[in-house]
Sequence to fold (170 residues):
Amino acid sequence: MNENNISPKKNFTRIEATLPPDIEATLRSYLKIQRQDCELQEEKAQLQKVLTEHLSKSPDGYWFPVVDGTELKVRFARDTEIEYDETLLRARLGGKYKCLLKPDLRKIRQHLSELEEILSPVLDKVGTPDRDKVKAAIDSGDVKREIFSGAFRKETKTRLAVMKFQSEAT
Fold:
């Protein structure tokens, strides 16, 4: 599903459900797997660090070692990330600051409601149908419901997250 179609965070109600022994065992196993996954991710990060140190004097590229009869493909690349102090640069450069900028999708998402009118002339290129606007157009009579027949796919996705409860006091 496109990010533009994701509903805003909804308010969830507290579910009052029993905790039968089999579901308790399921949750216990789930938490155990979460811990193991975390430990594996930490171990993987350490192994990547060792491999990176081993290849640190090599140029960016591919390495094809053979381990236990299995040929591996290891991609090694260095990516430099630079984070600018935008407030300081804006103050130092004044009007020249704008010539350094390019669109930032994260910031566009952050300010999308403010930008919608500005984007209006190019929405046919960068926009996607919005569920609430479609419903409003049908409800107002601007668009007939039949137009959408066979022109969309509706899928209900179930999401589940299990985590330790942390009271707001902590």
Notes: The first helix runs from residue 21 to 55.
